[in-house]
Amino acid sequence: MLFSQVVSLTELMAGVKAEPKTTQIFQITCWPLGHKVPTSTNALVELMNMVERWRQRSTYGPVIVLSTNGKSRVGVYCAACVAIEQVIQHGEVDVFQAVKTVRRHRPQLVENMTEYKYCYDLVLHYVLHYLNSL
């Protein structure tokens, strides 16, 4: 199950004089603490789809991905996004290159085989369940 909440960016940045902007916060709840990957590929694909729909309705601003330790969950999400973008844009995927792309900017991302394999599983889930609906 996913939980979302809309808050004003100016509420988060007290004292900043700027045009008010709205941000959307998405949280995945089927990723228990201590687990290297979520318990479901469907939930993370749905989260990615929700983020993309939000970006299309807004002004395509940046997406900020957070995790408690700043690396493990971030890497899985970002690598999976890159891999799915490859599928959408090119009709093929190279998960190794997707992981390599995110690791080029932050070497600590996707640091074990469980996370790496999950990226493959997630792309497979996406191709089997969502690709035909594009």
Automatic annotation (TrEMBL):
Single annotated GO MF: protein tyrosine phosphatase activity
Top-level taxon of origin: Eukaryota
One Gene Ontology biological process: neuron development
Domain called Tyrosine specific protein phosphatases: residue spans: 45-117
SMART domains: PTPc_motif (SM00404)
Coiled coil: none
Domain Tyrosine-protein phosphatase: 19-126
Pfam families: Y_phosphatase
PANTHER family referenced in this protein's UniProt entry, alphabetically: RECEPTOR-TYPE TYROSINE-PROTEIN PHOSPHATASE, TYROSINE-PROTEIN PHOSPHATASE 1
Full protein name: Protein-tyrosine-phosphatase
UniProt organism field: Trichonephila clavata (Joro spider)
Upper classification of the organism: Eukaryota, Metazoa, Ecdysozoa, Arthropoda, Chelicerata
